[in-house]
Amino acid sequence: MTTSADIVTPPPGLTGALARSTVIAALGGLLFGFDTAVISGTTEALQSVYDLGGFGLGLTVASALIGTIVGALRVGRPADIFGRRRVLFAIAVLYFVSALGSALAWSWSSFLFFRFIGGIGVGGASVVSPMYIAEISPAALRGRLVAVTQLNIVLGILLAFFSNYVVAQLGLGSSQWRWMFGVEAFPAAAFFLLLFLTPASPRWLVAQGRSDEARVILASLGTDAGTVEEEIDAIRDSLDLEHHSLEEKFFQTAYRTPILLAIAIAAFNQLSGINALMYYAPHIFRMAGAGQDSALLQSVIVGGTNLVFTMAAMGVIDRFGRRNLMIAGSIGYILSLGVTAWAFFAYGTEFTTTGSLVVLVSLLVFIASHAFGQGAVIWVFLSEIFPNRIRARGQALGSFTHWFMAAVISWTFPMFAEASGGYTFAFYAVMMVLQLVWVLRVMPETKGVPLEDIQKRLGID
Fold first, then answer.
1. Torsional sign, CA 431, 432, 437, 439
2. What is the pTM of this model?
């Protein structure tokens, strides 16, 4: 048996084990991003193959999002029972099955089923990947390390856009859209194999009464408290299982503040219209007058902008804080969405070259604002605001809200955009004004605060 005397105090800063575990866990985010964006290059083919109108296309796109709702809502309890790492293995399998199944689908209903399966994986990854990273990270590094998940999400989105563009140049004919989906099987298999190199979450181990194993892992990862034993004590205090239970009621007055914070940030994330752009980027650019190949290439530019500004946000999130990034992003949202709405009001269906350029530039500012603000902050913030004993369920609630709103926005966008692109983007702009008010008046700052101390600041015993 390992005792505290056997444990060497871990060195400060980023250890090799911490870096490796973070990068591997964040691959769940890369597949999350790829799966989210890959359908954007196939919407025209899917409409043709399955004879879909606006409602049918919206349902087809939303099928994966319905799966994400289920995955986000149901993954919390398995993550508590079996551990974060084991659930990540299951998520990798879901990604793999979905990729092959979507590529080989023999009917519209089978395609919807396999996209739904992939959605369960995305919903689960949106909960477990950032939660796992938060639980293995020292407070001083937590923001940028959890943000590695977001970096991988946007890298996955960029890879999906780029992959779609490359596949479209190969002249594969009627099977082109199938190859776009099938490519995902390769990173899914790699994710599964690399997970064998990661440890269990030390906070989950302490909650399971396996403190000796947690000590060994903390010794390789690093601590907030200064020594491994002090960190174990802080985790035990936050769990406070003499007065609380891991099975206690989640929706209660004691947890009202983090619950409302999680719902708000997740809902605002999607009310920006970000997933409408991710799922329908080529469609939006075609609405603004671009040709098919040009629309796919412009989507790659969107993905590249997303990646660059996410990397910029990662570099400052632990210095400037979560609120300041949200403020900057909200202002950028309002300006870019307002200009996009104006362009659709001004040009309607008769876009000139100038009008198309205005939409492209505005949406690049929009995606940059998202990447620097909400995109970088949401998964970090959700992983921080809940106590250890309910973190899995709290993260699941935030992710459920995010994906429920994503399904609503993505399902309705084709119908609303056909009626009026201007009013659609104007609605998103108004929602971002409300987000800015919420950030300024309600959102707390969590940078540099140990997880066990955040619950105290939110008034939770």
1. positive
2. 0.72
What are the phi and psi torsion angles at 232 (to 5°)?
-60, -45
Structure tokens at 357: 């350029």
Superfamily of structural domain 12-240+252-457: MFS general substrate transporter like domains (1.20.1250.20)
Highest mean pLDDT (candidates 169-178, 325-334, 418-427): 325-334
Confidence class for position 334, pLDDT limits 50, 70, 90: very high
Q: What is the pLDDT of residues 314-333, one digit of tens each?
A: 788 888 888 999 999 999 99
Q: Where are the alpha helices (DSSP H) in 288-352?
A: 292-320, 322-347
What SS3 state is found at 160?
helix
pLDDT digits (tens, 9 = 90+) for 81-99: 898 999 999 999 999 999 9
Q: Residue 1: its pLDDT value, please? A: 46
- Cβ atoms of residues 88 and 364 within 8 Å: no
Report the alpha-carbon angle 239-241-246, nearest 5.
75
What are the CB-based long-range contacts (under 8 Å, 24+) for 202-208? 202/135, 202/136, 202/235, 203/135, 203/235, 203/388, 203/391, 203/451, 204/79, 204/80, 204/83, 204/84, 204/135, 206/232, 206/235, 206/236, 206/239, 207/80, 207/239, 207/241, 207/246, 207/388, 207/389, 208/83
Specify the 3-state DSSP secondary structure of 115: helix
* HSE-up (13 A, CA, CB side) for residue 341: 17
